Amino acid sequence: MGCVCAYRMSEFQSLLGLEMDDAEIDEVLTEVGIGVLSMSAQGVPYGVPLSFGYDGDNSLYFVFLGATTELRKETYAEQADIASFTTFDVNPDGSWRSVIVAGPLTRIEIKEWDTARESLADNAYQSNLLSEYELQENPNVWALRMQEQSGRAVGQQ
Q1: Distance CA 48, CA 67 (A)
Q2: Three-state DSSP class for residue 135
Q3: CB of 32 within 8 A of CB of 92?
Q4: Residue 40 — pLDDT band, cuts 50, 70, 90?
Q5: C-alpha–C-alpha distance, residues 125 and 8, integer Å
Q6: Least confident segment among 2-6, 16-20, 149-153
Q7: What is the tens place of the pLDDT at every residue in 73-105?
Q8: Rounded average pLDDT over 21-44
Q9: Nearest one of 114, 105, 91, 98 to 39, comparing CA atoms
Q10: CA 79 to CA 67: how far, in whole Å?
Q11: Which pLDDT band holds residue 64 (cuts at 50, 70, 90)?
Q12: Extended strands (E) in the chain
């Protein structure tokens, strides 16, 4: 029976992937630029695809554009104790990488705008849209301060 179990583990290895180290996680966060931000408010989950910027250290930045009248993203962001963000890429050859980070999500203060804007310009998907987003007294930019991170990959070595 031990052989069957070992066979099943190797059979599913392409689905599970191998753990990535901090440098590999940093590479994904620097290169990908888009993912899904997941938050919860009053026990109700909400996931939204967003472009992001990464400061190369411990913060991801998101611009909440196109606010609805309910301000759903803002409401969830304000009420979530911890947010989670997932980003990934999949190649035609079957190789893939994924990273999940988690931490508190806070609206940035005006003094953080330059760092956030630079981070977004470096790797956010369609960062050219930022030129239309002028500095405001209270920018609708949020930062996820990474407290946890993990990553897995198949065929990326």
Answers
A1: 13
A2: coil
A3: no
A4: very high
A5: 38
A6: 2-6
A7: 888 999 999 999 999 999 998 889 999 999 999
A8: 94
A9: 105
A10: 17
A11: confident
A12: 18-19, 34-41, 44-51, 53-54, 59-63, 83-90, 96-103, 105-107, 141-145, 148-154
User: If DSSP codes are grouped into helix, strand and coil, which group holds residue 59?
Assistant: strand
- Residue in the block written with tokens 């109700």: 44
**Count of other CB atoms within 10 angstroms of residue 145:** 15
The residue type found at 105 is: L
- Answer yes or no: are the C-beta atoms of 103 and 144 closer than 8 Å: yes
The token duo for 117 is 């804007």
Retrieve residue 75's tokens.
């409401």
DSSP for residue 53: E
Cα 149 from Cα 25, distance rounded (Å):
8
- Euclidean distance between CA atoms 24 and 9, whole angstroms: 24
